[in-house]
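Reagents: none. Just compute today. Di-N-acetylchitobiase.
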Amino acid sequence: MTSELSLQDLQDLILSLLPPRQILFTFASTSFDSCVSLDTKGVFMNMLPCSVWFLWLLFLLCADAADICPCERPELCRQVQRERDYEVFVFDVGGKTWKSYNWSTVTTVAAFGKYDPELMCHAHSVGARIVLKGDVYLADIVDQNNRTKWIQEKVDLAKHQFMDGINLDIEHAVETGSSEYRALTDLVKETSEAFHTQIPGSQVSFDVAWSPNCIDKRCYDYINIAKYSDLIFVMSYDEQSQIWGDCIAMANAPLEQTLNGYDQFLKLQIDSKKIIMGIPWYGYDYPCLNLSQEGICSIEKVPFRGAPCSDAAGTQKPYSWIMKQVNSSLTGRLWDSKQKAPYFNYQDEGGQIHQVWYDDPESLCPKANAVMSKGLRGIGMWNGNILDYSHDPVAQQQTAVMWNALLGC
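Predicted 3D structure written out:
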């Protein structure tokens, strides 16, 4: 004995399983020997064997499963289009520390870790964008077809993950006028066009070194890259990547040098409202070959892109580690009045003397104030995960002050 499944019953069932599609398939018989295909207006199209119908439905279910909104509220899967007057741009490298961010200030999250739908849903719930990481070998996208394919893959991924744009993080050495030089500019232009067309209101940003003066041999077409991007994120850190003078430990982002970099970008007539100031929430731990009586730490010569020395002689350390290490250091927190940055010395278990340079609220505040005075679009950090988000009262206070410093002092 068979029971009749009405047209309306089956339509309601399929609609509950699938997003609306151009074609809906329904049964029109009391037996399961054949099925009728109808369009969304209920108009007869053709008769199909039910086995074919079931296979097609299974295919649609599998194809669409990944595009089903993972949020409790479906509207949270809509792309964020609201523009903010002041941007706080956060790089997130994975894990769940994002749950402790100061979301009252965050406007954009660049997701550089594994895709986390929970993070996407939460960011959208507070009106913050979440954007993809975009990195590619420039040699691979000199060819127009390869470039177009790469861009479309990123657009499709952003749609699939309900994201709001892309952050292009390409830090390769490039010679002015080379094929890679032109391809990079074309990549930014074409990426912006594709994202803005296919995901209206989406954001395309590009990461640049702390100065446009061919830092690390990154001789890019900064004027046009800024023209085609919605934002440029100026990475005002790792400023000792090329040390041309004495091989000594120095600040990760000396104040005068950092602010001079922004003056150089502005002299290129780049719109200040496209510029995000990037700051470090980490420092460098340098083993000292020698520590002079004046406290100067001589470091190993590690060349980088033509320079005889670099910060590669040190090791990056998160702010959470630094705050613990300074308490057991030889010197406690010291302050360099010229570079406007804190540092300290400590001795490891093997007897090696180290010097650690970093940024804290005192060094960050004048930088954040310069965002306002120079009329920049906002501020951001590398990266949001590396504060101490534990329940320790001291750590909580230190973390809160670092977030507050983003808004100036």
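The CA atoms of residues 207 and 233 lie 5 Å apart.
Action item: order primers for follow-up constructs.
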